[in-house]
Specification:
Blueprint lengths: L1 H6 L22 H12 L12 H8 L17 E7 L2 H10 L1 E2 L3 H17 L3 E7 L4 E8 L20 E12 L23 E3 L1 H13 L10 H32 L9 H16 L10 H7 L10 H19 L5 H32 L11
Parallel strand pairs: 1-3
Antiparallel strand pairs: 1-6, 2-5, 3-4, 4-5
Length: about 375
């Protein structure tokens, strides 16, 4: 039944924790939770993702001195901050690459604290905990100020810049061992309920360091390092594939209608240049005069349209007559007035003649004075 759900796509493989609701999940031990997550994500086979041998993994990461018994857990002066992460994956990236990113407010607090520690020559330690995990998962030392370069390794792309960190302890420490430690004398809350980038007073910070060094934990994030490596590879492949698709889309759009520096397409430039060339070529043919139409008619090759010489002569004669009409001078205003007066006079004479003719016809068609009697 479980594999049937996987094959039909009804199971979200990216969120294995929520594949099979378990009311007792939050009450399991950290190692049991990781076993369940890995078992669900890989179809029920817990050994589907074999881990790299611990010694080889630490050598690859450059963490041969992690969880060292020689660590000085009681420095003369130091500052301590609590780091709250959204997921184990971000902590995995921090261990793998030796970096960390925070919110805008958290970045400002850590940067100011690091600069103050540099002036006083004291270390700055970070206590890592994942939200809703019920434990702390490690201790790291801040080794640089904030860099503006954004990293793409995080689960979410909203983090700006990064710090460099050096990991000192990677082990699971339950909250029950740290619940009695308070943030400071004023704030009576426990460190297990603190917020992100909240500072812990010196005395309480030393207690947390001593707890991490003395606790013998059987589980840590290193147990699932290969599992998170494979998830990172899948996410990175998906990101590169998305970037490649976007690049191909932009390339196709650019090839269809490339833009020039003035924001006009090359097709429009070609059309405008062609029209400009046509105007330059036709400048020698056209004459700037009132007889431009006549000139165009006389230059037309009409010999190709006629079936014989007679047709050519008729066409040429009609063209010549049209040219003569076009070359006649236009009448002036006075000439137009005289012509209209003459036309009116002619029309009046014609009307009078018509009336006389009608009167003559009526005289010739006179009716008799008396009509014949009817029966």
């Amino acid at each position: 039944e479980r594999m049937k759900l996987v094959r039909t796509g009804k199971v979200d493989m990216q969120n294995p924790r929520y594949m099979y609701p378990n009311p007792y999940y939050n009450h399991l031990r950290p190692m049991d939770k990781r076993k369940m997550d890995r078992s669900n994500a890989y179809g029920g086979h817990y050994n589907a993702v074999p881990n790299m041998p611990r010694a080889k993994l630490l050598e690859t990461l450059g963490l041969q001195n992690i969880n060292s018994d020689d660590f000085n857990e009681k420095p003369e002066k130091a500052r301590f901050f609590v780091i709250k992460s959204y997921s184990d994956e971000d902590v995995h990236k921090s261990i793998k690459y030796g970096v960390w990113s925070s919110t805008a407010g958290g970045t400002k607090r850590l940067s100011n604290a690091y600069q103050a520690c540099q002036e006083e020559d004291q270390p700055l330690y970070l206590f890592y905990s994942v939200n809703s995990s019920g434990q702390f998962c490690g201790v790291a030392q801040l080794q640089s100020d904030w860099y503006e370069e954004n990293l793409t390794c995080w689960q979410h792309s909203k983090w700006q810049g990064h710090f460099k960190v050096k990991w000192l302890f990677i082990k699971d420490v339950p909250n029950d061992l740290l619940r009695h430690i308070k943030l400071n004398a004023i704030d009576a809350r426990s460190v297990t309920t603190s917020r992100d980038t909240q500072e812990v007073v010196f005395e309480e910070g030393l207690k947390i360091l001593s707890t991490f060094k003395a606790h013998k934990s059987s589980t840590s994030l290193l147990d699932d390092f290969t599992f998170y490596d494979k998830r990172e590879m899948g996410r990175e492949a998906a990101r590169k594939r998305k970037e490649w698709k976007g690049e191909q889309t932009r390339k196709v759009t650019k090839d269809e209608k490339p833009q020039t520096a003035n924001g006009v397409s090359s097709a429009d430039d070609t059309e405008s240049s062609a029209s400009a060339e046509g105007e330059e070529d036709g400048a020698d043919v056209k004459e700037p005069s009132n007889n431009g139409v006549a000139g165009s008619l006389t230059q037309t090759d009409c010999g190709t349209n006629g079936a014989n010489g007679a047709d050519d002569d008729r066409v040429k004669a009609s063209l010549s007559h049209g040219v003569a009409k076009l070359e006649e001078p236009l009448p002036t205003t006075d000439d137009k007035a005289d012509e209209s007066h003459a036309a009116d006079q002619t029309s009046n004479d014609d009307v009078a003649g018509c009336v006389d003719e009608l009167a003559a016809e009526m005289d010739s068609l006179k009716l008799p004075e008396t009509l014949p009697a009817t029966a």
